[in-house]
Amino acid sequence: MSSDFLDPASLAAIGFGALGQGVRISRNAVLLAPHRMRIGDHVRIDAFCVLSAGEAGLTIGRNVHISAMTTILGHGRVEIGDFATISVRCALFSSTDDYSGASMTNPTIPAEYRRSTDGPVRIGAHAILGSGCVVLPDVEIGESAAVGALSLVKSDVPAFKIAVGTPARIIGDRSAEHRGMAERLLGQEAVARRPDA
């Protein structure tokens, strides 16, 4: 059985804005506007993800895992920091329609009849989103923050905080131990790359 992940030649042919080393992307992922995507080293994007880079682009740092059935949609900029984890079935939206009824909704409608809002989404380094999280435009999830499964994130989550619920609210602090582990990993990789190693 062949791998679910694209081979290096197939990845290179996609035409990303930038593509790091050791990237693994499922052949069953959908990538829209890949020329506006910048992907760092050792990123893994699993099956049935839909990633659409809006005009402002999509940047994914190194060692990021985007798990199965995740969607990233909208016109605003999306940034995902190094070592972040986006769990199964998460949805990150950098655009949202007007739900008030004062305008029409959905992309089949001409722009003059719609009133959508665009805004950046930033997921900090080492942050983790639990399964089924929804993140709305103009939200920043700080470095090393954690968001529990099935949470709706409508406002910023500060660094090293744990948030859960609908809407998400802060319930505690996250340990910083993982940051030291990341430094050790990067150090080991640097040693392995040295010509005298």
From TrEMBL:
The keyword NADP does not apply. Transmembrane segments: none annotated. This is Acyltransferase. Coiled coil: none annotated. Belongs to the transferase hexapeptide repeat family. Keywords: Transferase. It comes from the Bacteria.
